[in-house]
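INSTRUCTION: Work out how this chain folds

Fields: amino acid sequence; protein backbone structure tokens

Chain under study, with its fold:
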Amino acid sequence: MLRVTNGMKNNQLLMNLNRNARAMQNTQEQMSTGMKINRPSDDPVGITYSLRYRADVASAQQYQKNVDSSISWLEYNDTVLTQTNDVMQKLRELTVQGANDTNPQSALDSINSEVSQLKEQFIDIANSQLNGKYIFNGQNYNEKPYQFPTGADGTQDITNGAAVQTDTGTVNYMVGDNIKLPINTTGNEVFGQTGETDNIFNLLNNISAALKSGDTKELTKQLANIDSRVEKVLTAQSQVGAKTNRVELMQARLGDMETNLTALQSKVEDADYAQLLVKSQTQENIYTASLSAGAKIISTTLVDFLR
């Protein structure tokens, strides 16, 4: 027969008290942190899902940042293309005005001065920047695409402007797992390729030369080229709009994905306060009862045996 000593009873009592105290401490820790998993040992399986959900949420948030940046780029492109079209319409008005045979040379010279200012505006638009990046130079966005020498009249000389070749590289934004969206538009797509009669810089040079020489027939001829370039600018703008629509769909999808992943993460990690309150009160009662019972067990002394 096993003899139960006072030491054995005391050790068993202390072990049970410590176990109850640890259980109560764990519950109180969950209540204070709001998390039911505070260390891997709390739930080895749950921590695996938790880490996976956290990684997925972080990825979704990064993709959303990429989407926000791409939308900013596309919206800026749309604004710049609208400005380009506005200046093209002004150039057309001046060309129609100059094509009138009744204009004296002085009037044509005044129109040419306005055309010269439009030329400067076109150059500014062609070298548009967003966050320090030239939007019309493909992957070489750190390089100014349209650089011209200063002419004798103090304005930029675009005699060879039609020969400028902008970078054709594609600027892609990662907006999902293995999903890349090209968002840029090259300068040559907007302002014209080398050799195209409706290249904006060809138009400006030809219209300016015709105004200087009083060649109204040439001005009339250039109207068709202006209309052709306007159509190409509008086509580029419609492509930007289509890209924007797709990116906005991705933005909504990523938002839904983050919401779902966050909800799944919450189910794995977040503590149930109502349940913890009941559990904590029960454990506290058990611990108090254990202390009370233990006090009676270990209160026996040698004097008690001599009575």
